[in-house]
Each structure stands twice: as C-alpha cells, then as structure tokens.
Amino acid sequence: MEHSDEDGALPPCLAIDAGSYQWRIGWTGGDEINAIIDASAQPDLASAFAEVEAAPDEHAVLLSEPVGTSASERIRAVSALFGMGVQALYVSATPLLPLYHFGIDTGIIVDIGERKTTIWPVFEGHPVLGAAAILELGGWHLTRWLAMRMRAIALSSAAAEAPSPVAAAGTGTAPPLSDAWLALSRTTKEAHARVELEGLAGAAAPGAVPGAAKKGGGSKGTAKPAGKGAEAARPPVEITLPDEIDEIGLISRVISLSRDDLARCGEALFQPPADLGAGSAQDGAHPGAPLPPASEGLSEGLGDAIWRVLALCDYSLRGTLLGSVVLVGGGSMLEGLPERLLRELQQRVPNTASGAHEKDEKAKKEKRAKEERAAQHGAQHGTDRGLQRRAGRDLGMR
C-alpha cells in the first residue's frame, strides 16, 4: 500500500531499525543516523517520528525487523504505522539491509547484536532460510564478562580465596552487578576491548578470570596472546571508578586492565567461556531478563558457526557465499574483529578448496567419458564426424 505525488515519486522515506539495545532512525539515501533511542525507554513507532520531528502522514517508512519476528508482531507494527497514516511501508529483515547498502545480492551476513548473533546466507537477494543460524552470543555477554572482571580486580585481596565473579555466576552465588558497573564496562569495552589476530591460548577455560585483586589495581592473567612485538607490549589501561560504584572491599578507585583482560573480552566471540551467559540481566534495558544458559548455544564461536552455516548451503553456492562475508551490528565494531575472522575463514579454505577441485575434476572426467561414448555411438550411425569434433572441442574434449 503506497501513495505518490503527481510525478510518481515516493515521499521522503524514514528508516527505523528497532534493535534490542537501541533504536536507530535516519533518512534513506544518506549515511547518517539522525536519532538514537535507548531501548530501555520502551519506545514506540510514534516516538521514532517525534525524534526526527517528522509527520507520519507525509512520509514513507522502511522498517527493519529482527530475524525470528513473529507474524503477529509484524501485523501489529504494520497496523500501527498505517494507523498513523504513513504513505508507504516496506518491511525488511535486518540482515538484508547491509547487502542492499553495499550493492551485494549474494553473501553471508554476520549480525552481532546486543543479545544474539545472526548468521544468514543470502543468494541473489533471497535468504537461504534453511541454513540460517542464531547464536545466543552478543555485545551484552561481553559487557557482563568485562564488568565481572573489573569488579574482581577492584575488590580486596580476600577475593584471592573466593571464586571469581564469573565462575561464581555459574552457580548463582555471585551478587548482581549494579547499573554503574555495567555502564562502566560497556564504555570500557567499546573504547579498549579488541580481538587478537592469532587468538589467545586457553581463553575458553571455565571460570577464565585469573588472578586476584592487588593493591593499587592491576592483575596478572594466565592466557598468553599469540602476537608478539609491539602488539604484546601494549600498556595496561587504567580505569577510574565512578562515585556510583561503592562496594565494601574496594581497595582502590583506580583499576588496571591488562592487554590480556581486554583481549579475553573480544576472544569470547570466538571461544565463548562456559560461564559467559550464566545469570540474569540487571541492566536498565532488560531488568531481570534471563540470559541464555551456558549450554551448547554458547559453545560455538563465530568461525565455527559461519562454517557450519556454509556447510548447510548447496555445494555449488559455497564459494560465492564465502566471497562476501559482511559484518554488521554494534558487536562488530571491536578492533581487530574483521582481520581475525578473515584469518579464521582463510585457514579453513585450503582443505575445502582441495576437495572441491578433486570433485570438479572427477565430474569433468565423467562428462568427457559420457560425451566420448555418445560420439562413438553417433559414428556407428553415420553421424557427421566433423560436427562431432567441433562439438567435442566445445565441451573441452581433445
């Protein structure tokens, strides 16, 4: 359903991307986000127009919806928008929009969101639905992990004898994190967390928050980065705790996060610790919402999941799909993530490529044998041999 002016052009179109952490609103045709609404405010579609001071009845709308949106939820959204008088509406699955933006119609979308990561293969503009995968792993999990780590460093040396907060979370004994800890962790993660190119040894070990708090801040980790040189010499990051964080046992208002701590945070996307998803959310956006259990949903990292999705696709499509892997979502902004993912996928390609080559050569031999048998049969029946030779050359025969 749509309306247009006299020359057939559609009215200005407002794009609304309603994510689980924040809503992003902007005008189509540009690269700028005109407004961001915190999802904790429980915004509605009318508030999206209010943020950009636009009248619904004068505009068209492009609405993105997360993978897994139910038909009833879609109907409610569509009814609400047309009830406000929008002139035209197009609803698209969120992972498809980045492909359209980059002018690509075939590839694999890896959308790392707040609560989950969606991996969706798309061929010629159509999702390969049977091969899509959703990992219960996203930016929130990394934020929570880092908050636990920061608090462990900040607490008194008595924590040396106690289980680490992350390990304790798996048993339900860890005290809930305050909003102040989570806010500080999110800011720190966005500014300093990274993904190491060659990964971390032992990053997936259960309860992987090593060491005890030391006076003046700082800690000593156990996982060793594979990188060397200047990368390995990166200095620790000092974080000053805000006044809102006031817990019994704090020995310093300044804590020090090592390169190992910050790398472990990003490494969780590739080697999720067993305790990464335990517990309940305590942030303002999702008060008390249960997090995914620490089960098979968190045992698979990005590289493994993408390869599993690729294996579910038709053999003839895999090379084309792998040629365009597009990272989107807030969680994809971590430094070093694209380079690490490229490296992981490239390391898997040689064996697959070798198998593909062998299969292709076998198919060619079978085709040649079939054509030769057909040519011999035709010769016996007086078929023109000159035509056979030309046809044979066209088919790659010698």
UniProtKB/TrEMBL annotation:
Q: Where is this region: Disordered?
A: 208-233, 274-296, 348-398
Q: Where is the composition biased (Low complexity)?
A: 221-233
Pfam families linked: Actin
In which residue ranges is the amino acid composition biased (Basic and acidic residues)?
Answer: 356-375, 382-398
Which Gene3D superfamilies does its entry note?
Answer: 3.30.420.40
Per its UniProt record, what SMART domains does this chain match?
A: ACTIN
The UniProt entry's sequence similarity note says: Belongs to the actin family.
Q: What is the protein name for this chain?
A: Actin-like protein
Native source organism of the sequence? Chrysochromulina tobinii
